[in-house]
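hey m, so remember when u said the tokens were messed up on ur end? i reran from scratch. heres the input so u can diff it against urs
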Amino acid sequence: MSRTLPKRIILVRHGESAGNIDDAAYNIIPDNKIPLTQIGIDQAKDAGTRICNVVSEGGGSSNWKVYFYLSPYLRSRSTLREIGRAFPKKRVIGCREECRIREQDFGNFQVVQRMKAIKETREKFGRFFYRFPEGESAADVYDRVSSFLESLWRDIDMNRLHLGPSEDINLVIISHGLAIRVFMMKWFKWTVEQFEVLNNVGNCEFRVMELGTGGDYSLAIHHSDQEMEEWGLTPDMISDQHARAQATRDVDWSERFLESSTDEIIPIQRLDSDFGLQFSSTFSTHGYRSGTI
């Protein structure tokens, strides 16, 4: 069966949050309710403009659309609200809130001094396998992000996102630094050792995975070698990205269609109420379909 693949998958970290500038915020505010700072709001607005420029190819493309996936945490939802202002209403297919791309669970309320000692232990133990007391390890996040990827490709396989053969569809995933790194680790089959040397994604920075002519996705189409080196990619990892960009082989995506899914795609009406996006009600059915198989 012929499938229409997204032209780009864009991974975006949320804007600066209160927790990014003061660890004490986690002592009194649940992690999922940490808000953006004013700087974070401004970062998200700017990111929206830059992402819109990428997917529209600087205004040179006339047939592009976007679909958003986002973490349910307040800082991610607020980031979407500001990013969404940059997009014309007719370009937005829809949105899904996805719990599996939430932040790594560090426990409940986080006492600053205790967390400092715990993170020092993590550095000795290793970032990927160290599990926070009452929380998760990066390996745990990898497992749930892997499950999300299976559902993502199920959406594409069953054309739940209404991908048209003449449209350039761009998936924008608004998440958190570690979740983004393990997403790329899973996708590009990076090892634990390669993961350990990756640098975190900055607030409202994004990584563009673009579809190459051979049917594989690569960071090297949009990003420079210098950028990838700054992110912590080794020369071998960068070389692999170039190989993916220039691949001539057919890619078998069937291995990604591994699970049935009962996820629900959020209708556009809920974007207005939940995320503050001022999208017209004319989009209430465009791109919406129940996820029940």
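this time it looks ok to me. The chain is about 40% helix and 10% strand. if urs says something different then somethings off w ur setup not the seq
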